Amino acid sequence: xxxxxxxxxxxxxxxxxxxxxxxxxxxxxxxxxxxxxxxxxxxxxxxxxxxxxxxxxxxxxxxxxxxxxxxxxxxxxxxxxxxxxxxxxxxxxxxxxxxxxxxxxxxxxxxxxxxxxxxxxxxxxxxxxxxxxxxxxxxxxxxxxxxxxxxxxxxxxxxxxxxxxxxxxxxxxxxxxxxxxxxxxxxxxxxxxxxxxxxxxxxxxxxxxxxxxxxxxxxxxxxxxxxxxxxxxxxxxxxxxxxxxxxxxxxxxxxxxxxxxxxxxxxxxxxxxxxxxxxxxxxxxxxxxxxxxxxxxxxxxxxxxxxxxxxxxxxxxxxxxxxxxxxxxxxxxxxxxxxxxxxxxxxxxxxxxxxxxxxxxxxxxxxxxxxxxxxxxxxxxxxxxxxxxxxxxxxxxxxxxxxxxxxxxxxxxxxxxxxxxxxxxxxxxxxxxxxxxxxxxxxxxxxxxxxxxxxxxxxxxxxxxxxxxxxxxxxxxxxxxxxxxxxxxxxxxxxxxxxxxxxxxxxxxxxxxxxxxxxxxxxxxxxxxxxxxxxxxxxxxxxxxxxxxxxxxxxxxxxxxxxxxxxxxxxxxxxxxxxxxxxxxxxxxxxxxxxxxxxxxxxxxxxxxxxxxxxxxxxxxxxxxxxxxxxxxxxxxxxxxxxxxxxxxxxxxxxxxxxxxxxxxxxxxxxxxxxxxxxxxxxxxxxxxxxxxxxxxxxxxxxxxxxxxxxxxxxxxxxxxxxxxxxxxxxxxxxxxxxxxxxxxxxxxxxxxxxxxxxxxxxxxxxxxxxxxxxxxxxxxxxxxxxxxxxxxxxxxxxxxxxxxxxxxxxxxxxxxxxxxxxxxxxxxxxxxxxxxxxxxxxxxxxxxxxxxxxxxxxxxxxxxxxxxxxxxxxxxxxxxxxxxxxxxxxxxxxxxxxxxxxxxxxxxxxxxxxxxxxxxxxxxxxxxxxxxxxxxxxxxxxxxxxxxxxxxxxxxxxxxxxxxxxxxxxxxxxxxxxxxxxxxxxxxxxxxxxxxxxxxxxxxxxxxxxxxxxxxxxxxxxxxxxxxxxxxxxxxxxxxxxxxxxxxxxxxxxxxxxxxxxxxxxxxxxxxxxxxxxxxxxxxxxxxxxxxxx
Length: 1095
Ligand SMILES: [Zn+2]
Hints:
Blueprint: H1 133-149, E1 210-213, H2 237-240, H3 330-341, E2 346-347, E3 364-365, E4 375-377, E5 381-383, H4 386-392, E6 397-400, E7 415-416, E8 438-440, E9 445-447, E10 454-456, H5 478-481, E11 484-488, E12 504-510, H6 513-517, H7 520-531, E13 547-553, E14 557-561, E15 570-574, H8 596-609, H9 621-633, E16 638-644, H10 680-691, E17 693-699, H11 707-710, H12 712-716, E18 721-723, H13 729-745, E19 748-758, E20 762-768, E21 779-785, E22 790-796, E23 806-815, E24 821-833, H14 836-841, H15 845-859, H16 865-886, E25 896-899, H17 905-913, H18 926-937, H19 941-948, E26 951-954, E27 981-985, E28 989-994, H20 1000-1007, H21 1028-1043, E29 1049-1054, H22 1060-1064, H23 1079-1094
Parallel strand pairs: 2-3, 5-24, 7-11, 12-13, 12-16, 16-17, 17-18, 28-29
Antiparallel strand pairs: 1-25, 4-6, 6-22, 8-9, 9-10, 11-24, 13-14, 14-15, 19-21, 19-23, 20-22, 23-24, 26-27, 27-28
Helix pairs in contact: 7-8, 7-13, 9-10, 15-17, 15-18, 15-19, 16-17, 16-23, 20-21
Bound molecules: zinc ion.
Residues 426, 428-429, 431, 448, 450-451, 453 line the site of zinc ion.
């Protein structure tokens, strides 16, 4: 069978088709069109296949359309969902069957023969005989000993460990939202270490694949190494890169760094892959619909799939001082990638392609693999063996955003309806039909690409194969030709074998003294009156199928009957918060349009009813309990929007006490600050997940509210947390309302379960994100929106095959906003390698950082933060040392050689290490840290990228008429010119920094005052002025805000002003007040760690 030769026809559905409304991210916008899913793809209406699970029980009905929901008052049966999809987990990665998939010769990942292993110099042998445990232990201790032997000056500059000396000014910042904190004590001491004199040369224009620097042979503080807990999979990885016999003597002259990795250069070390000439465009493996280069898009990246670097002639490294301009620049890498890869669409037909960076704007054409908007990997070429993986220490992980929003130019996934029989799946591993399945025996059977099981093709699904072995209808069926698509689920995929009702939203409003006093309640009620018209809807539905309900609370709960037949809303008070129940069923959850008058009246009355309240105490757990019970009674999934102001100290389940204690920072007990106070919150969260009840929490604290505990339920139910410290309507309403509007309108999948299947050889072993897991494979999400990601880590359980590659299939079963049960499938094929160089050549640092940050932020729950930091440093050093030892050409030990794809790993990792969670400054509250920790857990790669390394944009350097975003500069004080103004953003915060020598005209144009001194420090809004500069800056601010999922409140910071300290916190290349290292210092430190590992 030969499937590689056919020229792929253009898929007929390559562009958006009105027939398939799919999963419109902006469906509330009111598109017109059919809501009924058409069945264009030869629906398979055959008999129920024998492998289906429990036969449908109970009444089945057609998927509800967007009409009025059925009024249901029966108590929903509680308990585990019966998901037909996930019944067979234990066989998912079982032994492969004896039938082997047929592979074509010549389907190696890069179509280029690899150098025989026998030619490799001994010193570069990537993997020797496996180490015994005893050896490993010996080596491990040897490493530590040798570390101590190395002459090392006392730690001074890097600030790992408690900062010493030099107290600095106290900082009390205006309310900035994230750091809007409360009055603070002293800022942390500032370490005063000097840089490293004698640092040698970096090579700015390092040709191609590796970056090389020559930090000093000695000097630079040494950190304790290997003291932290080991990373997963790291157990014995370290020693293998530090075997003493692998020390290579430096060559007489430093070779050009990384020349072996790419570029048409001279003779190469035998172990490395052939150079560019022989390094053909990636050929397809035996997977994917697109075989061979695409006629229209050719091979977009004919050279080595590195990005951002131009091959150049090798040059010896001239020694000189290490200056910041010469070390790898994030700005340069981002710019290069934009220039090189932002012009052509990214076509997904080729296995193992590294996508453009998240900072590059590009379009995606799905030709058989999921778009990088849905899945990004730490590496697109993964080691064939676990030994190799352990040696390299590069985490194998995918960051998955199953419901990611797409730009308007890209089509939403097609919805495929296979009728009553449901989607076609492998009998054994339950993987869904996808482009990688191989049809055999003339099309009568197919071989599963995940477990190799041979399955019968049901008669209704039968189709002839062409001469290449491909089904002739392959391009008519999304599931045979696209990386991402949806199946309509049958009743077997529904809880209790019943099709779901449309979901409901319940608004639960704190009406205690604080909420009333700040004006929050009035503002919120006013906003809801109009916002309820924009509930998410699907396809062309005229109105949302979502029902709404309202609760207010302080120490007791008030439920409201807003039935359309009532003249006025009715309130029912439940004061027995210890045993929460829902006092009314009929009239609690209503259709907005039907009950508009009653709802409006209620929202008018709420602020008045509680205007004179003196109640300051609140409850919390009973509120969520009530919402969850209401959804249960209505037999639907849904979302609770909770608006809450204070630590819940009223007598009730989940009552909390103020346990904030900053003295715990840098002690072994610090982790308790991140842990919930009581188990009641987790227990409640589990019940919520079982009901499909997602909780979004809006917090308005004036003081400590214990975010670590309050965020447990949102976190475990796939919800979001927003925090507005010291909320004041005049200062914060824009930010709050913007977040609220977006949150209420965004499309959500409810009652979801996600499973990631993999081909034999690797399997998903760890998961990070906002969800709950009751077993080791199923990610349960009461709700999942288009902003949330799940990071999945993979481990080997067998040897992988270079020809077959490795496959991932992410299946998300969920209920749409209209109540339709669906399966969204994302497929991704990766390459596999036997040469470490291939791994390092296909990594993505931004994704690595996403994984490492999430790993570390989870680690602080159980380990001291210092141990977590040390673990990250050690792992990073091991990754880079392994590259140096196995992939870089021999060169002086004084050179730091970084793989091209990872040359930003040190700078980004340093940003993670000195982030507020891992190394808090004095201005960061315990709640801020818990909040950020929670946020990062669900971030996608673009969000972690800008969060850890903020964007700093000079505003007056580019011509005023230029409409494009100004090029960013590096996040360092050195880059600030005091005659300029800058915007800095990190996805959560937005600063406008004004240099002290700014021209008067600029001041006038932007702030409408006559001099720098008259600018109000901490200003939150720029005046609306009719001049080009003002328009441009305000336009840029709007554009930055539009790119982020949360509204960024502006803070104007003047140079030399007290507030500047807060701003400088985000200049992440500099040494931080909390003791975090500067980029230069950290790079030197990293180099020392690497040398330690190599010696
Ligand atoms: Zn299978």
